[in-house]
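Ligand-bound model needed. zinc ion.
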Amino acid sequence: MPEKPYDHNQIELKWHERWNADPSLFEAEENSAKPKFYVLEMLPYPSGSLHIGHIRNYAIGDALARYKRMRGFNVLHPMGWDAFGLPAENAAIANNRDPHDWTLSNITAMKRQHRRMGFSYDWNREITTCEPDYYRWNQWFFLKLYERGLAFRKKALVNWCPECGTVLANEQVIDGCCWRHESTRVEQRALEQWFFKITAYADELLSAIAQLEGGWPDRVLSMQRNWIGRSEGAEIDFALAGSPEKIRVFTTRVDTIFGATCVILAPAHPLTPQLLREADKPRVKAMIDASARKDPGDIEKEGLFTGHYAVNPFSGEQAPVWVGNFVLMGYGTGAIMAVPAHDQRDFEFCKTYGIPIRPVIRPVDGALANAETMQEAYPDDGITENSGEYSNLPSAEARSRMCARAERQGFGKAAVTYRIKDWGISRQRYWGTPIPMIHCPACGIVPVPEDQLPVLLPIGIEITGKGRSPLENVAGFVNVTCPKCGTAARRETDTMDTFVDSSWYFYRYCDAKNDKAPFDSKKIAYWFPIDQYIGGVEHAILHLIYSRFFTKVMRDIGLISNGEPAARLFTQGMVIKDGAKMSKSKGNVIGADQMIDKFGADTGRVFELFAAPPEKDLDWTDAGAEGAYRFLGRIYRFVTRNADRVVPGDNTHTEADRAVLRKLHQTVRKVTGDFDSRWHFNTSIAAIMELVNLLYAQESSLSADVLGEVMEKLTLILEPFAPYLAEELWEELGRTGPVFRQPWPAYDHELAQEDMADVVVQVNGKVRGRLAVSFGTPKDELERLALTDDKVRHSLTGKQVVKVIVVADKLVNVVVR
Ligand SMILES: [Zn+2]
Ligand SMILES: [Zn+2]
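Prediction:
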């Protein structure tokens, strides 16, 4: 048969239509004897169009979903829309578009693109978080948290533009000014806000990280550990001289308290306003406004003396009370004792302001530093000096004795503090889930009864960007009667942070149409935990901590039995174009449609999986995409011109046949291994390319049955990467699909291993890597390969290689110390 040219548009549109005509094609089975596999990519924000920077994580997830289906799993691979949020509201203000219409039309456009890319989602489970059938359950969860004291109100600062007269989201504050009034400085205002008490779970969020090791990237886990930021220490009261007030400080180093030479309050500390001199108030307000805009690490340390003194409960000395911009209200108690001799930050602050430095800890084997000549703080533990009855003690012992006395005498206690703060979920915005609460003048705060959910977000209202929240002007929404006493009351007008929506969405996919409950617990028990979650590392904190928190709360309510949402997490690298991350503002975006027209969805998928290991950043180049396109075209032409050469029963094998069979089985083994372990799809695809090169070289000498086997298996292993082409080839081969319902091809160990040995590399007896090498590879070459293997090298850093033991064709053991 003559070969056909590879017309990607014709092939892809044909299958696209067939796939769309059958909505059950990628359905997960409800009752299945198969093992389950839940693969999930983070749900997107419906911005309106997909670009090729977005496609990568979907291409990875879809390859895995298709592979697992072929391996006999009941695969759940859903998709939905994180549809509430600021851009819809901004579009309303800027272009007079209704947020609901704007969002839904974006979803339609993006869903078309997802389908056109050939991603195999079970669209019957689609969720859209801005629809009442979803967000009513946000409200239901809010009520459950409220019942348990996990949702509460307190005052917190918000960004306020005096020109707009409105609260701004952090994203609307640009260099300290309003996004719409470039010269208007944003102020901080304290408003009563709703919080979720994530700190109640801080300890478990931290300790359960151990269960995620191995399944989640180390980098994400260490970012979570830092974010939670547990410190053990003590809370100690300093009495304010001449006043009944006390200043409670948190310190991890109570053993240094005799070296405390001042007490520093956060600008936002509740005592600060009453201690400040009138003239200093504007300066402190400026500190508060500035600190809300900047990363605390970038702030230049600044402080002022209040004129007041506080009494050190151990030494009885009076220490001056300062206000300092680097002390954070959200950490510890919002007040610290400064010990310049033993804390570098305090050292720098006290040097700047001429506050005395008093060393009280000496190294175990050294002398106490001289305050006059100290160049930097001595921050380590040691032996106490100049510390009254606590002198001459090791730091740890001093700490425990001091804590005991503080507790006995009622001026302090041992305490643990966390960097993580309670989660402020109130937003003074329109496009979000209404918080289901009512303010009654008689009863106070009253929850909306469960049977009155959902509290519907009014649609089609006027959004001007003025006033505290657009909802405050909607009389039909705001004015209600109190569910308790029936008097006229006001509905809460704050809406929820959109991170609430995404904290539990993956449970809803298991039972997306349930209108009696957020989900049926039995369904969760079957599908959870998520076997593979895939998304960007930018979600390492926030989303990935909030969703762990929600999971633990849901478990404690008795809704689910899993304690963690996802067994494995994968964070893909970014897509780079012209040296920068693809983004609208950089002007380096290639739209998905543009790419599909030019190259086709299959080429886009193959290129993004081929050009770099999935965890590394990837450079998009047209030349690279053209290469992927040529590769797919070569396969297509090969199969179309050879499809009718396949004659069953012809099994006399030539040398060429044996070489091709060996390469085929090695390739199947390689691709299978990559799916099951390291996901090095770039090398999987490279292996398929080598196979195709060999096919071209041996084409005329191949026997019919080898040709048949190789074309069949090549098509099957192509399916996760280039599903359109795989279906088309399958049809060319006279088979009926779909290809993803065929079993994944097996490989023959003997055929594949004929010239390849699988050499295990150990470091001190632990397996750290594997080498695929030809049998009979010399020992010194094995040693060299082992010592230069990435994974092995990683576990050798900082260690000294003592000995390398090599067993030919089997093992390299590196002994280090
Ligand atoms: Zn403004
Ligand atoms: Zn009432």
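The radius of gyration is 32 Å.
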